[in-house]
Amino acid sequence: MMNFMARSMDARRILPRTLLALALLTTSAQANAPLDIRIALVIGNSAYPGNAALANPANDAKAMAEQLRKLGFEVLELRDGSRDQMTRAIDSARKQLQGKNGIGMLYYAGHGLQIDWRNYMVPVDARPRSQTEVVTQSVDVDAVINAFKQAGNRVNILVLDACRNNPFEGTASVKGLAQIDAVPGTFLAYATAPGNTADDGEGSNGLYTGYLLQELAKPTARIEDVFKRVRLQVRQKSRGSQIPWESTSLEEDFVFNDGRTPGSVTAVAPLPKPSPQERDKLFLQEKAEWDRIKSSQNPDDFYALLQKYPNGMVSEAAQSRLDQLSKPQVVPTPVQGRNTVQRDSRVGDEVEFVYQDFLTKLETRRETIRVTAIKDGVVEFNNGQQIVTLAGGTIKNDQGVTFDPPVQSLPADEFQIGKRWVSRSQMTMPKHLSTATGDVGWMEQDMRVVAYEQVSVPAGTLPAYRIEAELRSYRGLSGKLTYWVDSNGLILKMVRRARVSLPNGVTHDSSWTREVARIHRPR
After folding, report:
1. What digits encode the pLDDT tens for the residues 295-320?
2. 167-204 burial, b for 16+ CB within 10 Å, e for fewer?
3. First-to-last CA distance in the chain?
4. Cα–Cα distance between 382 and 398 in angstroms, integer?
5. Are 511 and 497 in contact (CB under 8 A)?
6. How far apart are CA 513 and CA 519, in angstroms?
7. Strands 440-457 and 420-428: what pairing?
8. Which of 66, 236, 274, 310 has the most C-beta neighbours closer than 10 Å?
């Protein structure tokens, strides 16, 4: 008894010291966290000469500067800037950001042109009559990207509302802006898809900026959610004639409106990640919304779901359905040297796959699939043995497992380096794979487009987008997928490295490689 009491008293003496040490560690970690310094360069050019003048960019810049100040940004504001003023403003932003590991942002509204796959912001004193004069009289967007890079920013955000009609005859061979990949740590946004033009707006702000201002004010929204909602609203308002575009290579979450007061600087705090239980609950909520509208023929139902869950676990399936019901009126021009993925399938198309053991590389089996029916955006192989959507969602796989909503292994819209999405589906197991008929659970894939490269398979060497994915399921499956997709939306090669953990503690390997051995497309 005395020993127990002694230990208890020691514990009472030690516990406060332990708690104090933990508190000091927490305080020290917060003190050492980088400060979330935010500096934005906001430029709006309206006062161009003659018929080149624009109504809204100067108004857009004024409103954007005011909104960003409310969100804790220090703003360098320039309206109707000359080339010299724009160049000096970019250098000032670089100097203020230098070495602070902060957030650098450019918002530009005005005329923008692309020359040889480079994008240029046009100052109000420019009078270009040729492509050469565009280069010498305008400001290359890369100048901002390079300035932010030199400053050592943690996050870079570039928003270009600069896709109006080109009034400078003979200065650009292609309309709109050129698609480029976001460099590491950068989020890049255009008012409309590359190679297309944007509406200057009917009110005091442009169509795109008007919606962006609204979304920036909403609290705790991640940057991807903000711009996805803007894209949806602009698309819906313009009836598909203007669809904003984004490219991202951000590796951390960023929230514009995190509750800070204007002018304040806070320590960087990572956003909380939902627990597995919270994710399960969220999926059930999203799935209930999906079940309610999945048979709807009204695009507005899918707009509403995507506004509520812009980057949720069923969002890519909802986006695919929206595109089927309300086809986009604009198509982005791809990055130079890349093919647009057409997702082209016709009845009679036939593909032979060869499977290999991942470790031994020995062939284990061959499989031939043939398109036997296409209806309402759904493709059947081998008389319904496998069923997919034209947009790349799996409804039923070759084992007879069904998925609702479809597992979206391909992005619902376009392929972009850096594109991320999560697809979770309710999966129903067939009797031969389950101990009980109708065994129901879930399957989740977390995917990212990482490269455009050549891939060699028995059918040949072809250019393809490489996608990397993480797998999870209720049946203990976990692992990684890497696969390469050609310009027809065909998965040329898939490498699966996975393990299945059974309830009895036994695990077994589920790794293999699948490659296209033969493609036959009757035309």
Report:
1. 999 999 999 999 999 999 999 999 99
2. ebeebbeebbbbbbbbbebbbbbbbbbbbbbbbbbeee
3. 91
4. 10
5. yes
6. 18
7. antiparallel
8. 310
How would you classify the pairing of strands 378-381 and 363-375? antiparallel
pTM for the model stands at 0.88
Spatial distance between the Cα atoms of 181 and 298, rounded to a whole number of angstroms: 34
Each residue's pLDDT tens digit, 345-395: 899 999 999 999 998 999 999 999 999 999 999 999 999 999 999 999 999
Which residues lie below 8 Å from residue 68, measured CB to CB, with a gap of 6+? 38, 40, 42, 75, 105, 107, 216
Nearest to 494 by CA among 460, 521, 468, 458: 468
Alpha-carbon span 480 to 108, nearest angstrom: 40
30 neighbors 82 (Cβ within 8 angstroms): no
Within 358-511, residue ranges assigned H as helices are: none
What is d(CA 246, CA 190) in angstroms, rounded to the nearest whole number? Answer: 6
**Of 197, 199, 176, 178, nearest to 188 (Cα)?**
178
CA angle 517–520–523, rounded 5-degree value: 160
How many angstroms separate the most distant Cα atoms in the chain?
Answer: 96
**163, 178 contact by CB (below 8 A):** no
Label residue 379 exposed, middle or buried (CB < 10 Å: 0-12, 13-18, 19+).
buried
